Amino acid sequence: MMLASRIMTDLRRTTVSAPPAVLRALEAEAERRNVPLGHVLREAVEGYARDLRERRRPRVGVARSTDGRRAAELTSEPVAEPPR
Length: 84
Fold this sequence. Notes:
By secondary structure, the chain is mostly helical. It is built from four helices and no strands.
C-alpha cells in the first residue's frame, strides 16, 4: 500500500476535453485491457510528452557556419530546456 500512495503523490489531476468519438475509442481500449480510462489517458499523455522531448533534444552539428552565426541566433526556439 505504501507504493500506491507514493505513486499517487507524484501525479497531478487535470481535466481533458476531447471529441466524443475519441473518448469512446479510449474507453473501449480501457475496457478491452480491463484498466481504468485514466490509465489509458496517462499512457497517451506520457507518450506525447516523450515524443515532444525527443524532437526538441539539442542536436550536435559537425558543420561550420559560413557567416559566423550560431544556431541559437538563427532560431526562436531554445536550444535546450532551461535549468531547474
